[in-house]
Amino acid sequence: MVRVFLGTYSPRLDDKGRLTLPAKFRDELRGGCMVTKGQDHCLYVFTRDAFTEMATKVASAPLTSESARAFQRNLFSGTDEQNPDGQGRIAITPELRRYAGLSKECVVIGAFTRVEIWDAQSWQQYQEQHEDEYAKAQEEVLPGLI
């Protein structure tokens, strides 16, 4: 069964660097999750199974590729395994908070097979830059799918 994450939420980081996951996501992530550096300076949160599947593909890239090695190093060195506490909180490491530029105000979005954690201001800027492109999307973006 594919786990699906959808929606937009606005939790806050507490003084200990913990973030409360949206209630809708907690059951899927209760058994543990992997928090890692994502593209666009956000954080990705995967279930363990989804992370293992993705990581296996990434690890299969040829070691002779400099860009593949750099990607692997950033991905694997920047991943932290977390188990949400009874209140659905996960601790975001200082390095991951730095990478994503997280302040107290955060945005958590469901991105189908993963959760993304954004600094609220960064998410707003991203939306301002890309929302109009989405509204005007042509078939060339996803040929034959929409």
UniProtKB/TrEMBL annotation:
Domain SpoVT-AbrB per the UniProt entry, residue ranges: 8-50, 79-122
Keyword check for Mitochondrion: no
Gene3D superfamilies: Transcriptional regulator MraZ domain (3.40.1550.20)
PANTHER family assigned: TRANSCRIPTIONAL REGULATOR MRAZ
Gene name per UniProt: mraZ
Subunit-level organization: Forms oligomers.
Name under which the protein is recorded: Transcriptional regulator MraZ
HAMAP family: MraZ
The keyword NADP is assigned to this record: no
Family, similarity comment: Belongs to the MraZ family.
InterPro entries: MraZ, MraZ_C, MraZ_dom, MraZ_N, MraZ_sf, SpoVT-AbrB_dom, SpoVT-AbrB_sf
The entry's keywords: Cytoplasm, DNA-binding, Repeat, Transcription, Transcription regulation
Localization (cell): Cytoplasm, Nucleoid
